[in-house]
Structure formats: structure tokens, C-alpha cells
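Hi V.,

You were right to ask for the full record rather than a summary. Here it is.
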Amino acid sequence: MLKKITLGSLLLLAVVACKTKEEPITDKPMTDEQLVAKAMAIHERVITLDTHCDISVANFTDSINYTQELNTQVTLPKMKAGGLDVAWFIVYTGQDSLNTGGYERAYKNAISKFDAIHKLCEEIAPDQIELALTSDDVRRISASGKKVAMIGIENGYPVGLDIGNIKKFADLGGRYMSLSHNGHSQLCDSNTGEADDDWLHDGVSDLGKEVIAEMNKWGIMIDVSHPSKKSMKDMIALTKAPIIASHSSARALCDHSRNLDDEQLLWLKQNGGVVQTVAFKSYLNTEKDKARQAAESEVAKVIADSMGVKWLERKEVMALPSVERSAYIEFYISMMPILKEKVATMTGLPEAVNVGDFVDHIDYLVDLIGIDHVGISSDFDGGGGIEGWDNAAETANVTIELVRRGYTEDQITQLWGGNLLRVLDEVQEVAKTLQAG
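Predicted structure:
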């Protein structure tokens, strides 16, 4: 079934400079109108898959849920409007103490998010969205006209000290997991250790090695987006299956520890994995983002003050205890539409990071490691979003820019999910072999 995309929701990025890759030479170049029409036709045909969409369990209830037009960047109406077919909803747990109490709280948090995703698919909107566990599920569900949910686990902290939780998480639908987030977990070091050269395990811990073996056995893809470079190296040496970076971009273009440098990218290519380029402003162009954020923060401070809340920068938010951090993120989500409406009326602001900057990273990654190893992610509702792709309703703008750059329909199919599903297939084949052995 073809996707129905609301054209009125799209910001057509005609001003972004184009770079031809494989566009055939013709006497008459396409007009912008023709290019957009071509892109929209492609967008309807391909399966579009975003590997990272954070959630709050507060939005998965009988009264407040994704069937409604919420302030979140992802909802079912927004997915339908923008032609986003597959959203990987994230079981995220912030890093806390490495002790029994911390593990118990983390496990409880993870289960609450698994339960929320299942509730959406099985109770709230089973006629609109279904949980997929395999690539065949994705294609079947998408062909039926429903949206597709998949589950990724951000931070292995909820595993605690019990590797039996890996199979539990797989049985609940988890199909990828990062072994750490911001801060070292019991399983491996985080990229955040780079700032002070402060490490806990010098890579993957002994327990982390056991967890990797269990992930291979139960068909969970290993996600290297948050672990340290040494952790990633260890994971590639240990795994029997390809890995993914669920939401990272190219460090050569933006020097942030959450991005992958050329050496890491070549490791990933050799491993057969895929890097899901992420639409996160500060991971795409730090200079542009800092200038824009500084201007917007001044506006946000005034708005927050009017709402009786002290404005906090991202680092301050991430340093809050988990309960307070969640509460602040809820405030932030509710405040963002007000900020965006205000900023839209202002002139003279620094240029925002946009879809052109995002596809610059895709171009770089494709040139370095090849089209077979690159994909797309947003990090929506977790800090992601750029001008032109700031919520799921604007998803087609990415396809428009890819067509503008000269990518073919086959290549766009790979980028929008084909490569990721290929890795999932290979990981699950390895799991079958290990389980049979």
C-alpha cells in the first residue's frame, strides 16, 4: 500500500545547495517542482525506517497516547503525514549507581518502557501500528498499511548483573542494545570518558563480554553509538555478528565524541555493520549549532521564566537525578512549540543546522565506507531534530534532499532502512546458528 503523505507538512528545501552524484546528463535539468515530485514518488515507494525515537511512558496511556497530536516529535499522525513507516522506540535508562539498588531501579524503568510500547501496539492502536521482530515483519506490516514499531535499548545498565536479562529483553522485542550511555556502565566504558581521559574498564568489562555473547545468541544487534572507541574496538573483536551505530554521524565533519572517526567507520565497514546518521544539531555542525542555540537560549530563558521554570542547558539537564531530569524534559517538550513559534517570527538569527548539513554527513559516510553501510536516524524526543526534519511529519524532506544530491531510488531504499534490515537479518542468522549449536 502506498503511503499517504501530507504535502502541506513539508518544508521544501529549495535553497539548499545541490551536489550531483549520479544524476544523468540531460539537456534540460529538472525544475525544483519536478525534483520534488520525483522525490515524493520515491518516498511513497520505499520503506522509511528511523532507528532512534525516544519515548516517555506518560504518552502511552489510555487517555494520552500516540494516536493523538501531542507535542512530541513522533506520533502516529505525524508518521502518517510525513511518510515515516518504521519507528524504533527506545527503552532508555539514564546511568546511575553501579549497585543493587541502581540496577533494580534501572530494570523497573526498562520494563515500564517495554510495556508502554506493547500497550500502544496491542491495546491502544493495534489497527494502526504493529510491533516487528524481523525484517519480514517490517515488510508485511508496512504492506498492510500499518505503521511499524521496533524496539531498541539505549544503555545496558538495566541488565544489572544478570545476563539472563538479555533473553528477557529479546523476548520482549528488543532488537538492539548499547552497552552504555552517558557514563560508564557495568558493561563497558562510555564515550563521555574521553573528556577527562577517565575510564572504568578500559573498554568492555568481563561481564560485558558475557553480555555480548548473549546478544549474539539471542539476536540483539550491538549498538556502538554511546560506548567509547576502545569499547567499540573490543565489541568488534568479540562479536560474531555485524554491529550498528544506531544514532551517530561523522567525526571528520563534526568533532564530537558521539560521532565516529574515520578509523572507527572503517572498522564498522570491515565488520559489515551500518552507521545510522543522526539528525542531531550539535553532532552535525557544532559551530552553527552553538551560534543558533545561544540566540534561541536567550528567548527560551524568557519563556521559561514566564512559566515559572529556570532554564537549564543540556549539560545541566543531563546532570540532574533521573526523576528530576525526566520532569525537566517533560517541561522542555511542552515549551518547545512556544519557542519555535516565537523564533519563527524573529529575523536576524544565526542560520540553523538543517537537512543540508545532515545529508552532508550521509555524503561523507557513503564516500568513505560505501552505500551499503549507511542509514538514517533522528533521535526525536531525545534531543534530535533539525530545520527541515524537526518531527516525523517532515520526514519526506530528507528524501527530497537525497534526490537533490543525485541518489538513486535503490540507494535511497538502502539508506532509509535496507542496510539496517540486512544487518538485522545477519544478526538473527548468527543467533539461529548459536542456538542450534
